[in-house]
Design brief:
The chain is α/β, with parallel strands linked by helices. It contains five helices and five strands. It has helices at about 25-35, 90-95, 100-115, 135-150, 160-170, and strands at about 5-10, 45-50, 55, 75-80, 120. The mean pLDDT is about 90. The chain binds zinc ion (ZN). Zinc ion binds near residues 10, 67, 123 and 131.
Length: about 180
């Protein structure tokens, strides 16, 4: 396995309804065709995330991808379908769906579980491009904030367990 240290996010720069209703495999095949036309030997991305959150594998993770000219070492490239007309500091929701948001966060978690901690950046963090048409660092900080502020079970007051049990008897178990 090659050494991995970054997940790099891209957009396909397609309209929201691009190839709507067609199987994701056909969309992946189409992007592969674009990349073959550009002289790549396969689709450049390792994963493609459809508008409905479905994820398809592109190039095998073991293989060096093609997403950032001259800087593909250590990177796993993920492409979100959409993003046409965007600029580099747009917000995620402007171009991508809530299903893509969830799918991308889950995919990042799965990849970190499988391959260890990796930085998560956008194509636009490496090159003069709008791709992936949003600010990945800002999106990521929401991600971390959500994790940090996620369920922290807290006692409403600091009472010993026996006292809380007695109070629960009188409050229907809410103490
Ligand atoms: Zn890109």
């Amino acid at each position: 396995m090659r050494m991995l240290n970054e997940i790099t996010i891209h957009g396909s720069v397609t309209d929201p309804d691009w190839m709507a209703g067609r199987p994701l495999a056909e969309k992946v095949a189409e992007i592969r065709r674009w990349h073959l036309n550009r002289g790549f030997n396969d689709i450049g991305y390792h994963f493609v995330v459809d508008r409905d959150g479905e994820v398809a594998a592109g190039r095998a993770v073991e293989r060096l991808g093609a997403g950032v000219a001259g800087q593909n070492t250590g990177k796993i490239h993920i492409c979100l379908l959409g993003g046409r007309g965007g600029v580099g500091d747009d917000v995620f929701e402007t171009h991508y769906t809530a299903d893509q948001d969830t799918a991308l966060r889950n995919l990042i978690d799965d990849l970190q579980d499988d391959h260890g901690a990796m930085a998560v950046r956008g194509h636009n963090d490496h090159a003069a491009t709008a791709c992936p048409q949003f600010d990945v660092a800002a999106w990521l900080s929401e991600f971390e904030t959500a994790r940090i502020t996620a369920p922290v079970p807290e006692d409403p007051f600091d009472a010993p367990r026996w006292l809380r049990r007695i109070i629960a008897l009188f409050t229907g178990g809410r103490a």
